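Students often ask why inverse folding is considered easier than folding. One informal answer: many sequences map to the same fold, so there is more than one right answer. In these notes we will look at a single instance of the problem. The structure comes first.
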């Protein structure tokens, strides 16, 4: 976690726009617990992880929107597979992630 904050400080000093995503609530089986963090830079670079896979990809997209709009949001991700589309994850739980702009 210290390395994440060091990298954020370095990028902030360079004037880069970023968004921080923090898991604030979990339910059922999830790949990461509340408090897990990842940072997304405006160029799409990811620092840290909130569990990977489908859920992280959904939050990554929301983080890029947060950077563009400079507006925080809460993202809720169902970690189940949608049989019709084949999208999703097999964990079976849910995560709620607070995404906030940095810089």
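Output (designed amino acids):
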């Amino acid at each position: 976690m210290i390395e994440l904050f060091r990298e954020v400080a370095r990028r902030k000093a360079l004037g880069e726009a970023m968004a921080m995503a923090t898991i604030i609530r979990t339910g059922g089986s999830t790949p990461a617990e509340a408090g897990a963090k990842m940072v997304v830079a405006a160029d799409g670079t990811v620092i840290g992880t909130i569990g990977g896979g489908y859920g992280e990809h959904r939050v990554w997209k929301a983080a890029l929107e947060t950077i563009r709009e400079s507006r925080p949001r809460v993202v809720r991700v169902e970690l189940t597979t949608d049989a019709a589309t084949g999208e999703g994850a097999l964990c079976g739980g849910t995560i709620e992630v607070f995404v906030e702009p940095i810089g």
